Amino acid sequence: MWKEWLHNLLAKGNIRGRDITVFVMSLLLAFSIWLIHNLSLDYSSTMTVPVLAECNIEGHSNRSSNSIVIAARCRTTGFNLLKNRNKSDRKAVVIHFADRDMNHVDGEIYGISSNELASYMGELFGDGVRLESFLSETFQFRFPFENNKKVPVHPVKVVSFKEQYMAMGEMNLQPDSVIIYGEPFQLDNIDRVFTKTIELPNLHSSVHGAVKIEPIAGVRMSDTEVKYSLGISRFVEISTDVVISLRNVPSGKHVTVYPSVAKVVYRCAFPLSSDPSGEVHFYIDYKDFEKSKGGKCVPTPTRLPEGVISYTMIPEVFDCIEEGKQ
Asked: Which CATH architecture has domain 42-142?
């Protein structure tokens, strides 16, 4: 019966089906414009997000065992508020916090204050959200204790130098050690970790960079990458003959060094300000002789002058013979 009534109404108003379609479309378009306009306006409302924390805290798991719901009064568009609706029922968002922002509360419990949390607004609620205030002053997470051990990082390097260039000491790593986490049986067998291979061919100037640490199955590390640096210098070589002397020989003892003269080749940083060959003396201490096996000893230099990078001695080992001993 209502169909007949509607037909009569349309007939009296001389309204055709096409006019209805236009009217409905106009109504939907107007509603869409109104909705988009209102959703684009700024509103002040409470937003919530469930959070699971990640943080490199020495001696603890890097991920919290609990998640918490963080609530804040924010100002943002209606679109963002609509997007955030029912977010507390969704999977927790994993946020990596800097260890300096986590404050130790007790045992495995660490907290972050609302002041420090404010710098993570983008990760928490997304872009375009302005914080008015958090509904709590502190937020606490539990980071379980974990077996750990501190071990040095060993650089794996393949290095070559341009002619008359050399390294100014060992390669420097930062950090030079890491904390490793895992089961006790795994940690007991690890006394160091290694970098991936650092290939540095034909060096003629100082170098620096970053390199990954080789991962170990089942083991987590406090750092997965280290920075390296290696000082390179041009050098010149100076050769000289030196007499090997003895020191601290007790009264009444007579020790002979053979050979008594050695050839020393100094490698000095270029340009050379002065000849260091006359400033260095080499000696064997009697105590070292007593501790030696068969009287085989390596001479010790006095303080090397500034600019001397390294030296080689020919021969390297000397025979010390004490008179009266077989």
From this structure: Beta Complex (2.170)
12 Cβ contact partners less than 8 Å away, ≥ 6 residues apart: none
Report the C-alpha gap between 143 and 106 in whole angstroms.
11
Report phi then psi at 124, rounded to 5.
Answer: -75, -55
Domain spans in the chain, listed from the N-terminal domain onward: 2-29, 42-142, 148-230, 236-322
Q: How confident is the model at residue 41 (pLDDT cuts 50, 70, 90)?
A: very low
Residues comprising the chain, all counted: 326
First to last CA, the chain: 134
Contact 294, 281 (CB under 8 A): no
pLDDT, residue 87, reads 54
How does residue 92 score in pLDDT terms, banded at 50, 70 and 90?
confident
The answer to whether the predicted template modeling score (pTM) of the entire model surpasses 0.85 is: no
Over the stretch 259-316, which tens digit does the pLDDT of each residue have? 999 999 998 888 877 787 778 899 999 999 988 888 899 999 988 888 888 899 999 9
Interatomic CA distance for residues 232 and 230, integer angstroms: 6
Cα 143 to Cα 120, 187, 230, distances in angstroms? 19, 20, 38
Q: In this structure, what token pair is assigned to residue 187?
A: 């940690």
What fold does the segment set 148-230 form as a domain?
RNA Polymerase Alpha Subunit; Chain A, domain 2 (2.170.120)
Q: Which pLDDT belongs to residue 242?
A: 92
Fold for the domain defined by 236-322: RNA Polymerase Alpha Subunit; Chain A, domain 2 (2.170.120)
**C-beta of residue 76 within 8 angstroms of C-beta of residue 151:** no
